[in-house]
Amino acid sequence: MSLQIFKGKLVGAKKGHKLLKQKRDGLKARFQAMMKEIVETKLEVGSSLKDAAFSLAKASWANAGDDITSTVLERAKRPSVTCKLSSENIAGVMLPVFKMVHDPTKDAAVSTLGVAQGGAVITACRETYFKAITALVKLASLQTSFNTLDEEIKMTSRRVNALEYVLIPRIEDTIKDIIQELDAILFDKHAVDFYKGGTIVDVINSYRSMLLAVFYILCAVEGRRGDQDDKPSCECA
Q1: Is there a contact between 15 and 96 (Cβ–Cβ < 8 Å)?
Q2: CATH number for the domain whose boundaries are 23-158
Q3: pLDDT at position 160, please?
Q4: Cβ neighbours of residue 172 under 8 Å, at least 6 residues apart?
Q5: What are the distances in angstroms from CA 21 to CA 26, 36, 89, 198?
Q6: Per-residue pLDDT for 54 more than 80?
């Protein structure tokens, strides 16, 4: 009964090890792809922020050298760009994903900025900053998912190693010990059956019968009677 239980545990452990290993490999593949995407997004963010800073300088110059930052802050009452948190399922792991939501109706307060002068340059500056914000949100989403995925890969690797190097060998050793104990018990049982089953006694009794038969034949040839006192003593101990 114990042998069957441990054999079932061994099958379950090997199946779990196989599934966890496949999960780890899938997570590592997504990890590598995400790392490449993060590098590309960082380069994009750096270029976008540089262009945005340059476009802000051009907008300030087009506005007769006045800084438009304070004017934008006064007119912007509600944010037109917000982020929503969602999740993405990768091999059973829920990764956080940031999605940017833009409401153009809330940009009406700043859309009239630069009507007198420099309107086109200010509009171009706003579009450049919008691209930079989009890249930043994407980078933040990738970095957060990257950290979560890294922790999940470490935890899955620890489980795979524990099954491969600790649990499965321990169950296999236990099964070997049980099999050895069963073999020893069966050997002892066969030995007891051999000595207690009457095998040796039967052989001795057969020899005794043969000796008695030979004795009676010899007595008949010699013309003597085989009395009970003359019988050879070959009693089985």
Answers
A1: no
A2: 1.10.287.3240
A3: 93
A4: 10
A5: 9, 23, 18, 58
A6: yes
Q: Is the pTM of this model over 0.90?
A: no
Q: Where are the domains of the chain?
A: 23-158, 198-237
203: tokens are 């052989």
- Look at the block and give the residue holding tokens 């050298």: 65
Count of C-beta atoms within a 10 Å radius of residue 56: 19
Query: Quick check: 167 and 13 in contact, CB under 8 A?
Result: yes
- The full 3-state SS of the chain, as one line of letters, equals CHHHHHHHHHHHHHHHHHHHHHHHHHHHHHHHHHHHHHHHHHHHHHHHHHHHHHHHHHHHHHCCCCCCHHHHHHHCCCCCEEEEEEEEEECCEEEEEEEEEECHHHHHHHHCCCCCCCHHHHHHHHHHHHHHHHHHHHHHHHHHHHHHHHHHHHHHHHHHHHHHHHHHHHHHHHHHHHHHHHHHHHHHHHHHHHHHCCHHHHHHHHHHHHHHHHHHHHHHHHCCCCCCCCCCCCCCC
Phi and psi based region of residue 198 (left: phi greater than 0; alpha: psi -120 to 50; beta: remaining) = left
User: What are the backbone angles phi and psi of residue 103, rounded to the nearest 5°?
Assistant: -110, 100
Contact 24, 156 (CB under 8 A): yes
For residue 81, is pLDDT > 90? no
Distance CA 32, CA 235 (A): 88
Cβ atoms of residues 158 and 17 within 8 Å:
no
